[in-house]
Amino acid sequence: MDTATSATDTPDLATAAPPEVSYVLTDEQRQLQEMVRDLFGDRATPERVREVMLGAADAAFDTILWQELADYGLLGLTIPEAHGGAGASFAELAIVLEEAGRRLAPVPLLSSIVLGTEALLGAGTETQRAAHLPGVAAGTTRLALAHLDVGGDLLVPPGVHASRTGDTWHLDGTSAYVIDGASASHLVVAARTDTGALELFLLDAATAGVSRTEVEVLDLTRPMATVELAGVEVGEEDRLSGGDAMAALHRALTAGVVALAVEQVGGIQYTLESTTAYARDRIQFGRAIGSFQAIKHRLADMLVELESARSAALHAARVLAAGERDELAIAAPLAKSYCAEVYERSAADGIQLFGGIGFTWEHDQHLYLKRAKATKLLLGDPKHHRALLAELLGL
Amino acid sequence: MGVDERALIEERIAALFAAHPPAETDERTFWGAQFDHGLAWVQFPDGFGGSGVSPRWQAVVDQRINDAGGSTRNRINNVLGIGMGAGTIMAHGTDEHRARYLRPMFTMEEIWCQLFSEPGAGSDLAALSTSAVREDDHWIVNGQKVWTTLGHLAKWGLLVTRTDPDQPKHAGLTYFIVDMEAEGVDVRPLYQITGEAEFNEVYFTDVAIPDDLRVGDVGQGWTVAMTTLMNERVAIGGNVQPRGAGAIGEAVDIWRERHGAHGDAVTRDQLLQLWTAAEAMRLTSVRAKEAATSGTPGPEGSTAKLQWAELNKRITSFSVDLLGPEGLTYPGGYSFSRPDGSADVDGAPHKRFLRARANSIEGGTSEIMKNILGERVLGLPGEPRVDKDKPWREVPRS
Description:
Distance between the termini of chain A: 11 Å
Mean pLDDT of chain A: 95
CATH architecture of the largest domain in chain A: Up-down Bundle
Helix content of chain B: 40-55%
Number of domains of chain A: 3
Number of helices of chain A: 11
Number of strands of chain A: 9
Radius of gyration of chain B: 23 Å
Order of helices and strands of chain B: HHHHHHEEEEEEEEHHHHHH
CATH architecture of the largest domain in chain B: Beta Barrel
Structural class of chain A: alpha+beta
CATH class of the largest domain in chain A: Mainly Alpha
Structural class of chain B: alpha+beta
CATH topology of the largest domain in chain A: Butyryl-CoA Dehydrogenase, subunit A, domain 3
Strand content of chain A: 5-15%
CATH superfamily of the largest domain in chain A: Butyryl-CoA Dehydrogenase, subunit A, domain 3
Strand content of chain B: 5-15%
Number of strands of chain B: 8
Oligomer: heterodimer
CATH class of the largest domain in chain B: Mainly Beta
């Protein structure tokens, strides 16, 4: 398509004014932010994060923090009140995700509360929602989304095949890079059928024929698994049949992309704060190293990029919360591609700014670098999202 | 207060428009009436072009004038006076200064320029060496100023001089209003890398300035100059561009005309890197504006100048790359002309690419902006200042 000469009646999205959304926190949101900040600050301490990530705790995720998040109603923020949630919006959930990202909290928010819940909200029948969402809000049900094939390429159809006999579906195949796949209680499996259509199934992770293998991951604070389905049989009632499966998967992945951007902002913020504090305290050549322009200017650059990353992520979260679907198509890839690049740059700069101590295992900065790299590649890398944007904007 | 202020402003706008319909009144008459109705600088007191209300109402006034077909171009075409000089005169001048200068400044009968930078005092403005020596009821000024926008059109200049070289650099300065038509003032065009002369060099040779044109006390020049520069930041910041406007819009246009669907993936990705960075920056300006009006401004308001300068350089450079071999040309040639107003946004991509190099130098270099962000926002310690307590006379200079 020649975009230079077409587009006679459709607006040019590269210049069209976006819908107005507010970026200022309401009083309630500010209170929520303070409460969540305290909670993660108290619970997701560096010591606790390391205990969980090294397998020294009772589970692959922080069960104590998870239970508290449930008790405070924070797992059900985006779940309708009728299904045990708070009926709030993604704007509130974003506050939780940012703080979780700031502390690298090892809890399955992205997998269960964002990806799994959005898929269920998008394609589940009322019965299916009623059956699973209260458990999700209570933290007892933990969903994981299995949508990739073994290569992990977003543009390749799922690696699981579904065929139907009467009211029974047979699922076979392998899905890789399933976030929190080994610890999830339930799996939302994307599968292609004989006709090439996409379907979503929600099944108990303990279903016969399901085997899950932990992947040795770069970012130990976010486990992933390879999920194999061999001769798995589920019923038609386990197929999410309340909406278009492809649209629901798209909805889930878009929310996931925005969630990652928000989480990335939390990590950049932490990195800026910790490196700035260090630059104020660390003395070399008789001066605080932050008085040297070589250090000061790197931190100023980080501040500038943080503020823009925050704007992009906040915009995406608010647009998602407002249900502005057309703008979300721009805002989500914008946020994910921009924040991912900034996070990696900041986290890597952080290692350099801390110097030798920053390269040690005992220092926390490498955890942020690993999170930055992993979130950059998760759910589409920056190039992938910029290509989506280019197509959308007609560039 | 907000409700009362709004009512007052609305009332004055209505009175102004009734007496002088913006679309049917010639500019100068309208601006004069706008001044007389207290709507030139709404935060100034009654009688000095203001209404004694919060400055945020100015945006409402200007929007209303534009919507009614009037002009606010005086704010741009006499920016150094209206945007920077007026606030300085209001804060530090005498009532005689305010009565004499503000109205003709606002009507553009008198253009103003700013005489701060010198060849030997750029980022380190307080090190300036233009001297003013007192003789009875006037001062004799000698020295050279540089980067003087509108200097060749100006009637008045805002001048900082050194009146006591034995004081440390910040303490020995005094601020004046200078008549640009006075004997001994020589304004010469300063040609820049674009081949145009937006700026001037101004030479002062035994120029006499009456003492009643002094603004602030003798030795208080630094404080007064800071007021001017604070007004500059207010004048520059705070505007929100539409999505896809400015340099990135031009890059998009060139891409579509010359590459588009046939463009290569690498260049397309570079374009999108710039588009996303520009849009993220734009969203930051939207966020800063909302935060400023809701009363909880954060660091998002202080990063704009640095980020815009650096990004504008990258985008304008990329646009020339998109032209391919045509990037080797310079449309219109190097004209050695004096453009009207700001050449910043005019002309071919080639010229904009060159002009953008100044973005990270003028109005505070990017290095200085990073120092400010590092020290004032992040709270990092400053560099040791070797010249701070020394008499200016003893500090090494290039």
